[in-house]
Fold these 2 entries.
Entry 1:
Amino acid sequence: MAREISWKPMGENTIIGTDVARLDGIEKASGFAKYANDINTPGTLYGKVLTCPHAHAKIVSLDVEPAKKTPGVKAVHIFDGGMVGTELEWEGALVAAVAAETPEQAEDGVRAIKIEYEVLEHFVDEADLKGAESGPSQESPRKHQRGRGSSP
Amino acid sequence: MRDVENQAAANPPVTRPPDGNFNRRDFLKGSSAAAVATALATSATEAQDKQTKPNVVAAKAQKITLNVNGKDHEVTAEPRTLLLTVLRNQLNLTGCKDVDERDAAGADTVMIDGKPVLAGSRLAIECVGKKIKTVESLRNGDKIDEVIAGFVKHDGLQCGMCTPGFVMATRAFLDKNPKATLEEIQAGLGGNICRCGTYDGITKCTLELAKGGA
């Protein structure tokens, strides 16, 4: 014989259906709640990143010395993907980062970086992919494997 | 970045007295701020650019006084520094949030001379002499504005990132439209975006306040 199990009617449960106080409500709604980006420790530096503006490109040359000399800049970091000769494969790929005393100075530092790209071909749709597959294969075999979606 | 030549005028930075004489067009023509000079230069300035060797020098930071939440504060700002940056980084008023580089979300809403304004759309130097109010002014210890109380009561918040901006927008909206209808509220708060989807609670709160209070 099966025992019937069911919730109590609404209003009779001790937890389910009861109002829970929004403990952080006032802090958040009044703007007092501190999020990670709100913390202003003295001496905090601000970072900006240089990213590749091309969908597919090779870094030909990179000079970060002008960034280091930009007023307010305290450090410059070159990512693995920012080494000369690296083939970058999407717009927004990380190249280098600059840390400075104000966000504006960090942006100056990023702008001061001298970089030259060899812009390479990139695929956008199936027609591009078909064209590449049927054309002369001086391009690396990896490109053909990268195609997504159906192909006959 | 192929183009390594800098395009700014070689003029030394112009120090303008922060008063009513501030004129954006003149400032942009005469300053050494890199990005703007080429786009907005007059033909005279362009001719000057071609003669001299261009050299980027950011216009220097200067001390200015901003009236925020009823008090005068001395802060440091380059001409290009946003009001949002100064409020958050120097005055530690982090209620207005730096959410979106396109400044479309409304999370940085403050009030300037009684009107709701996006702090990320104003240069700090052009706010000198104006009365700036941030969301923190709606709370004094345990005393909170009815809008804040309403948001908490109707749970018009989740992660809380958009909330201070919404609170300011709602406060400014209700100041102007104390008896707003639902349609007016939806249109009036249309300048703020919430990714968590708290619009229901916010609308309920605002409707209740518009109909005569909690």
Note: Residues 103-112 of chain A form the longest helix (10 residues).
Entry 2:
Amino acid sequence: MTIAVAIKATDAIIIAADSRGTIGDPRGLTAVNDTQQKIFQFGKCGLAIAGASEMALAILDEFTKQGLNNPQTVDEGVSAFAQAALFCEVWYRGSPPGNRPGALFILGGYRPDPAGGPPAALIFLLNSNSSFAPQLANSYPMMAGVPQYAVYLSHRYYDPTITGNNAAALAEYLISETASQDPKVGGATRIAKVTAAGYRELTDAAIKKLEIRNKSLNKKLKTFFTK
Amino acid sequence: MNITKISDGAYFVPSYSMQTITAGYDDSCSIASFVGSEDKDEAVRAVPQAPPVRELPRFERTPHIVSA
């Protein structure tokens, strides 16, 4: 399974996900691999995926073949997924809609202001089950996969005035807390910052620092109830 | 695949392997459904059944024997 999150901060959009893939029926014997890439640069935007990863990667591959993989604005990104709906309809024409695989994309990017003001940070949810019709996130974080723990934590700790650095720390926290409870989520956390200038992934060392920071804050929180 | 909204901004996405495995155990679903539905034989149709005939219940009256 997956936990993928997108958080709107005052100076960036944070896109993050775990890297675990699960194989087998969760009601029985399963196996995991922690090599899954679930966040991607998409031109100047960022993408996080959940669901059928093979389907999602096939769509991204088709974007590359058709020259749709470099949107400069979030609206260009949304338009690329309108095309994805068309080629999915061709690929899966032999399968009844209820039997088709499903993939969810979280798209984060910026829309320039025609009046020259600051660009608007926007996060869209694009669902293959609804032909990638754009669903625009409100000010709260957007998450997909196994989001139950992350929903609660984001309600407790998210604030619209959060900075990009703190949002990256929050994203790491949402993912590591979910992984601590649900073994279908895990592996390395990957985090990217999307700004109007483009997409940049945090290094493993930077993410490790956030992990250590969050663990020490968790320890402190525990002392509130053990002292 | 059922992708379920569980709250604003939160979407539960079941693992793809779970979806394909449970579909495989489902009698109503077969591998054929991934490559196209099978054509039904048009010549084989159920014969429409006539509605059942409702009969009023019959009451057999036991003869009342009056002894003298």
Note: Helices of chain A lie at 53-65, 74-91, 148-157, 164-181, 204-226.
